[in-house]
Design goal:
mainly alpha, 136 residues, 5 helices
């Protein structure tokens, strides 16, 4: 399993068993939970009105910050994957082998986004709550 974690960013991704991918998915989930905790503390320090919000608004406010960080980082990472991962002047758009052979950067970007979506969905379902016009 250390091949995926310690391999070069542009190396061809190894074929791991499902348990290997789940292990790295859990690492990503822990990263986003820690990020939410750090955001919570940071926003409390920087914005005094944050402490006065009700629980629903507090979690929703923090989720918006987290989604912004994910979007910025994932966009930069995606552009790198498309333009520079294959090397030798090849790009994801111009080389079929580059499209068909996943690299570590592609797999790590998938872990990053999947982990974000899992944490975000759980926080919305369990902390923020889902309300539709029918519920009102």
């Amino acid at each position: 399993m250390d091949q995926l974690l310690w391999g070069s960013f542009d190396d061809v991704a190894p074929h791991l068993p499902l348990s290997g991918y789940l292990f790295y998915g859990v690492i990503g989930i822990v990263f986003f939970v820690i990020q939410h905790t750090i955001l919570h503390i940071g926003i409390m320090i920087a914005y005094p009105g944050y402490k006065k919000m009700n629980s629903h608004d507090l979690h929703e406010y923090r989720l918006q910050f987290n989604s912004f960080f994910h979007a910025i980082f994932a966009t930069i990472w995606s552009v790198y994957c498309v333009l520079y991962t294959c090397g030798d002047g090849k790009t994801f758009m111009s080389d079929e082998e580059c499209r068909l052979v996943p690299r570590n950067s592609h797999v790590w970007l998938c872990f990053f986004t999947a982990s974000y979506l899992i944490v975000d969905t759980c926080l919305i379902l369990f902390l923020v709550g889902v309300q539709t016009p029918i519920d009102k």
